[in-house]
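ugh ok fine here u go
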Amino acid sequence: MRGVIAAIAIGFALLPARAATSASRPNIVLIFADDLGYGDIGCFGHPLIQTPNIDALARRGVRLTSFYSAPSCVPARAQLMLGKYAGRVDFLGGTGPGGKGGIAGAEITLAEALQGAGYHTAMVGKWHLGNAEDRFLPTAQGFDSWLGLPYSNDMVKPWVQTDVPLWLYEGSRKIEHPVKLDTLTARYTERSVDFIRRKREVPFFLYFAPAMVHLPLAPGAAFRGRSRAGLYGDAVEEIDWAVGEMLKAVREAGKERDTLVIFTSDNGPWINPPPRMLQAGNLLWHVGSAGALRGAKGSTYEGGVRVPAVLHWPGHFEGGRTSADMAATMDLYATLVRLGTGAAPRQSPMDGHDFTAFLDGTAKESPRKEFFYFSGRQQAIAVRVGPWKLRLNDGIELFHLELDPSERHNRAEEMPEIVARLKLRLEQMATEVGGAKTNPPRPRTKK
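structure:
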């Protein structure tokens, strides 16, 4: 109910802008893979995994090589859906099995903003932002429909010691337990294709968040053993197939020129999974790649937070361009709200920038000049300003990410003035968000 009221309020507030821009508002297909690493797809350098559909999207659109999310699942999805750093968000409890938390009533999700501007909205896939009460589910947060899991597919025994069953949801109804994971990507794809093909007079927003390639891996039977990169490669190639099916549906519906397609991931690959995950068929070499980047999921090195990103909107975001300028999931929020509503986001505070001019080539540089790396939902413990990154997890580390993207050479001792300047920015951010005082650590299932 809260989502409906918020959407109506947002819709009325944006009516003048919406009417003025209705002809140029795109349909939006936002694909948010799970634990897919920077180096896991062809157009980002994987030598074996075949991703022809994502690669073709990159050839036609814009490829961002310095695109940032968060180190793990929940913060990444919070930043995407709310347009603000995860350190600013307090769910008032966990969002995994048995958790009591969820998105607070004052927040305006991306789906609510678009729904309020007249979009037909649907989510297919993993939520992980609260399910203890119906008011926390996607259908109360701006989505007209939802088929998916409330949290990660590993949150069952033997990988997580919980007696809370993992259910597949249809809206607010629990419809399947145990979940048939090996058919899930195909079912998600079928639902997404059906949504795209529907005849409607308003634009649509589809948020596709597959369970893969989060452990335990479960590629469909048609893909198992197909790749040259093991079970992990099989699962990635099935995701690429799903992308291809959605792109085909867009074309066949005659909506290609009116549709913005975005492909990215929530965080880096789970290269170093905890011992709890290395059982029941999960093997250490069934994990992804961060390419040349250091670190992995859970880390504030680049490999944990920098993810592949490709966007294509014919006539707007195109040309096969590649940019190493910074961008982030919060910028997707700001850009999509601006494109979909004709007005700047009303969410407060906002950490995103409208990237429209940068993506269409009108602006030569990205509007993002800095990025803060939060350790989960706690304090910012690293910051990038321009090419320089200061990281305080393990002592004081300073890297020049353009000369040293693999973060091999700590320059802190030779550049004390840069260390001091970036430390100040971290202190300012800590003061701004309240640090651990505002978002205290809470007991939750280990990720």
